[in-house]
Amino acid sequence: MSESERSKRVDLLLKALNRLAVRPMTVMEVCGTHTVSVFRNGIRSLIPKNIRLLSGPGCPVCVTDQGDLDAIISLSEEPDVIIATYGDMMRVPGTFSSLAKKKGEGSDIRVITTATSCLDLARENLSKEVVFLAIGFETTSPATASMLMEAKETGITNLSITCFHKRTPPVLEQLAMDEELKIDAFLLPGHVSVILGYEPYSFLADHYGIACTIAGFEAEDILLGLVDLASQVARRNPHLDSTYQRAVRPSGNVVAQKLLETVFEYGNACWRGIGEIPNSGLRLREPFRNYDALERFNFKIEKILPPEGCLCGEVLSGKIIPPECPLFAESCTPVTPVGPCMVSGEGTCSAYYKFTRGGTISWEN
Amino acid sequence: MGKLTLGHGSGGRLTQELITEITNIFPDKAKLSELEDCAFIGNGYAVTIDCFTVTPRTFPGGDIGELAICGSANDLAVRGVRPEFISLSIVIEEGFELEELKLYMKSAAAICSDLGIKLASGDTKVVPMGAVDGIFLTTCAIGRSELNLPLGMTNLQPGDGILVSTSIGRHGAAIGASRFELEAEGLKSDCTPLWPALKDILDLEGLRSMRDCTRGGLGTVMCEWAEGRNIGIEMEEAKIPIQEEVASVCDILGFDPLYLACEGCAAIAVSPDQEEEALQRLRKHEICKEAALIGRVVDSHKGLVGLRTSIGGMRVVDMPVGEMLPRIC
Lengths: 365, 329
Hints:
Chain A contains 14 helices and 11 strands. Chain A is α/β, with parallel strands linked by helices and 365 residues long.
């Protein structure tokens, strides 16, 4: 698409949004990639003022509980262990340290981009144990499942995972029920929906009367999603829609769903700052349970509170925006992050800091 | 800061902190205080030093030998200094193949011959296996400027146009792609000496400042200018040249091309009346044919860099903090 076609399209979408946004509307974008795209494209500076955009619990690193983080970091101190992790986890602060610091102190920590690289790592390092930090939503859990199936089939034993995968629909229900938040509309995560399809979200409109659309990640995708949501709210007709049909099939990715079903079962999970949510996590099923790193190393997850004053939980559940946290841009900055939301590439606090410098400046348009 | 992390070597805010920790130990009488790519040491002579370690050592578009000469020579070139002499120090790991070493030296020698640079002095150390990762090269470049006034960020003024000499992020994207074994056809590092092109704009009176957008990329250089001079800078996203291959590697790995390292790209500030002339002269060179006007120094939001996004929104460009790491999804 040429630059002029693009700006025509954006212009069209913005005009539609201005016409439709007659009632004030609180929209939560659930996915961290949406949050970053909103900031990166400067979308807040373009949309009508009565649309309030809240960022939700969609950054996989940010929702990892403090106790889980500390366990992960402690595991890196074990002798003959290679930690394999997605890059986002490296700088996330635990109570006493971070993986980046541990690496500086000599721990063997490898950044990988796909779970399957763990198989090669394990094969190349037979005298060591490779521990994969399995975190993320339905976008990353199928890759973990597929990796474990192959490990089992090919008899790889020097490999285990810390299973902190989380499920999207239960946390959305928790937010939908929240009286304080009063969410009018959800901009639902495109990538997660590629796996899940439509059905797992249908309760949001049916039971809670919340407008929903599954949206893509380009600026135009997000604007189109907002146009759809504004139209649902204006017409008082909340339902589940998709403005990302080029990628999401109504039934989702059945192969990936099957993989998840084979390897994992539902379990309760702790979300940072939000607490335990029933059935919001994935646990290894019995045939795969011997791949659980916490059991292999006899690690118990301790209940550890986030650092005093850190309001990551309130940020993650959309109750406050980052500049309302007393630590934000004061003691908590990207150089000295207190919570993961300030350090993860998809963290809400990091995005607020990086793209608005703490919300202290406004632009003349 | 306790122990150092790789983030301290990333060229962003942590690197700045580390440099301050080091330079603070030197009293004022024992240092020069300019924070530019190279330092003028009297009679127009300028000096710079840079250490090179890269994985993989040979990458699409170059190798560590070529990089070591280009890197230091470019640090001189962006201040209008013709690179004339190189001092080269090599730290090699025991067991390193001599043939491989010679390969890198041939690449280095070829750049020196092309630019008329003379290898003036050097040092070699071989250290026990495991003490370094293969080979580390350090180059110190010396040259002399014929300009009356040195180029530098102190010359920046509101209204100045900001150009880039070529498309951004190619070195960082090429290295990132090889490191994560992504096949990106057509993607090559931009590693190249800038002097042959930059020398042609040195006589423009309106030329204010130039910077080599290496570690930390264009975004970091813009932040250093804005913060260093307390001026505002506005860039236009749609005007920043980015090759498709670079954009797609960034998409996959979650990198922001604004912060990706370049090894043959200069950011150039020039008075508004001479922008066009500068662009025309640059574009005559093959390595600068993608040169573009991408932004302007402004009188508002002092100390901050703003980006008008391609859909017309506005956002801040802040200095990156740690290493750029591939994201989770």
